[in-house]
Design a protein that fits this description.
- By secondary structure, the chain is of the alpha+beta class.
- The protein contains two helices and seven strands.
- Strands 4-5-6-7 form a four-stranded antiparallel sheet, with no helix packed on it. A three-stranded antiparallel sheet has the order 1-2-3, with no helix packed on it.
- The longest helix has 18 residues, at about 15-30.
- The chain starts with 14 loop residues before the first helix and ends with a strand.
């Protein structure tokens, strides 16, 4: 029987073989990067030699002149302009909200959240119909109160309900202020 032995060995990859293959590939790539870059160098030289624009000089600023503010002879802005000792007939402290009066249901709502939805007449008595923010309709008449500023109803007609409110005047007293709610006014 004849046995044939092959002299060919199977390819065995060793670490030395891999290292030399990687080194060879790296050298080939490095060689590809060494192209002629003279055109790039000439562009850089041309850009550097190009005329550079002139810079405007820094503007001259006027020196700061200090200002001495002396207002000792002027009125103090934190003091009231009206002397409480001087009374020119308008004493606002006589007008005060009636804290003993029982509150009515529409006085818990701000006036701008109430809307007039109509009027009702019965036996020569005219009533206004007011809708509150909870969509409940209330019947009011002259003399009733509504709004959070002591708003007393003084007139009801087809187009609006007129009130007089008692509001602070800013100097410790109260003043009357006119207000109204127009029909359909939300």
């Amino acid at each position: 029987m004849i046995t044939l032995k092959s002299t060919l060995r199977p390819a065995v990859l060793t670490s030395a073989t891999l290292k030399s293959a990687v080194l060879g590939a790296g050298l080939l790539m490095l060689g590809g990067c060494s192209q002629d870059i003279s055109d790039l160098q000439s562009f850089i030289a041309q850009t550097k030699s190009a005329h550079v624009g002139s810079v405007e000089p820094i503007p001259q600023f006027k020196p700061y002149e200090s200002f001495s503010y002396t207002a000792a002879e002027l009125r103090d802005p934190f003091m009231a302009t009206v002397d409480p000792e001087e009374d020119d007939g308008m004493k606002t402290s006589l007008l005060n909200p009636d804290s003993s009066r029982p509150r009515q249901p529409l006085e818990v709502f701000p006036l701008d959240t109430l809307s007039m939805v109509g009027i009702l007449e019965q036996n020569d008595q005219q009533w206004g119909l007011i809708k509150d923010p909870q969509n409940i309709v209330h019947r009011v008449q002259v003399g009733n109160y509504m709004g959070q500023s002591e708003g007393r109803i003084i007139e009801i007609n087809e187009s609006a309900i007129y009130l007089v409110e008692i509001v602070p005047d800013g100097i410790g007293g109260y003043i009357e202020r006119d207000a109204s709610i127009a029909i359909g006014g939300d």
